[in-house]
Amino acid sequence: MAKGVKKPKSPATPAPASSAGKVPKKGGVKVAEESGSRNAPIINIGIDRQDRAAIAEGLSRVLADTYTLYLTTHNFHWNVTGPHFNSLHAMFMTQYTELWGSTDVLAERIRALGHYAPGSYAEFSKIATVPDVPQTPPKAMEMVRILVKGHETVSRIAREFIPVAEEAGDDPTADMLTARCTVHDQTAWMLRSLLED
Length: 197
Ligand SMILES: [Fe+2]
Description:
By secondary structure, this protein is mostly helical. 60% of the residues lie in helices and 0% in strands.
């Protein structure tokens, strides 16, 4: 990314919701505004305002997708039926517990970058790529198929934003997103294995 075309230095300059060319497009996504100083010192962690906005947007999208996938997995934990009930019920619990924990880490990173974290169904539904939970519980193996796609989707979104964090020098976010990709890729593999002959 061209470092020379941005960097508004005044704290009074509103931060853009995204940096042109830096953030993967998803139909005019707008994340929560920067939280402002409110008498506290201006954020000065070595990542400029515009980069923090772009990274917060990426993290917000990963958070929305992770939360949606969490809710889907918990729903399936409740509603799975059939001869594989015991193993899937337990596996889904392990998975939704991990996803739930990760939402907190993602949201608090957004806060550390100076932005408010999205945390409502209305906001999540606007920015999530993972589809909402099915209205009618699917058959067990269809649940597994839906979760494979969900984990792969979150992994793709997270992976797209790793370079945005890296190029801004935000190693903690890049590491966090890399760790999320590792979990989602591994979970997708485990679920996919259930569907293979
Ligand atoms: Fe339970």
